[in-house]
Write a structure and sequence with these properties.
The chain is mainly alpha-helical. The chain has a domain of 291 residues. The chain is built from 21 helices and no strands. The chain is globular. The relative contact order is 0.12. This is Sporulation integral membrane protein YlbJ. Keywords: Membrane, Transmembrane, Transmembrane helix. InterPro entries: Spore_IM_YlbJ.
Amino acid sequence: MRKERRGHQSTVLLAAMAVVFTLALVIYPKVGYEAGMQGLRVCWEIIIPSLLPFFIVSELLLGLGVVRGFGVLLEPLMQPLFSVPGVGAFALSMGLAAGYPMDAVITARFRQTKQCTRIEGERLLAFTNTADPLFMFGAVAVGMFKSPALGALFALAHYISSFLVGVAFKFWGRRDPDHLKEVKEREEVRPKGNLFARAYREMLTAREEDGRPFGKLLGNAVSESVQTILMISGFIVFFAVVIEILEVSGIMGVLGWPLMEVYRLFGIHAGLVQPTLAGVLELDIGSAQTAAVPAPLIQKLALVSGIIAWSGLSVHAQVASVLTHTDIRMRPYVLARFLHAALAALLTVVLYGMGVGRTAQGVMAHWAHHLPALAPAMEHGGFWETFAHTMSNSLELWLGIFAALTAASAALLLLRRIRVVAFFVRSQG
């Protein structure tokens, strides 16, 4: 009875919000139109050319069985670290390359094809929901803060905190009976033998189970990807209009009053209240507003890092829409975003205090000769040129990230092996 009453209350609340928003569009038609056009420009110049190719390629790789084959090869790494199948590495890599919500699209496909359990899907979403390097280096560091060296600061804080969230969520739902049952059934049918031979057989099996001719597979990949990209674009336009309406109507100021008191208590600049609320809704707008506020730099950097990790309700709505046809829950995803945002902000402060981002003329000085060209390239929609330029000049960063993750992985694996040996010795004794 209580659950039914709660459902009725939420229905009334959502209906009231929809009516108020409709009236606001009638009162402020010009504001809504201009915000919608701005959102459409973002979709046409950035979102569609950057995400659509990745969506199509991922569908092809899934249909051809390549993902399942690589999943077998990467199982020894992903399982001990994050307690997810090896195919999770594909969601992680595509999320790194394309950003939000690529990881959710791939994870949903894994769940629909029974390549992961519900719990494993929730663990995957917890740490694969990352921003792409182009956004942090080009749009945020260069475009918003006019400082190429800050890209390394944002990227290191973002990816290290994401790794820590993945390790923490390794224990999420580990005693869930349905999860344990599915894992046991998967272990019973898993083929034995050489790792590479198993990967090859799994790839062929996945291709046979799909069964679609390549022409049909390509056509379905394009049509499904276009449908997904239109859905994402719709959310971006909608939230762009919502934020503008909230600001013009003064509602944003009312919502920000409690937050202003909290910021005042902790000595945080009051001008960051409005960008924080905007960042809760949409990360691009929130990040841009934060960079423009005349507040202490360290506070702005921590807030932007937290906003990028939180990713905004706009991205959350996209993820929820993608997960509609699965049993993966949103609650662990939202909890992971809170944890990711807090860790990213904290790591930003720590790394900045260690000199990362402040040594633009030192360790990262060579970036100044390469990255200033990114801002005009972004403005003129030169996505692929910008992406190639960024990747070709970020070798040191990626080597550093890879080395740090490899060292952490080796330490965790060694600790796990020591625990197994200690348990064996105790049992024998």
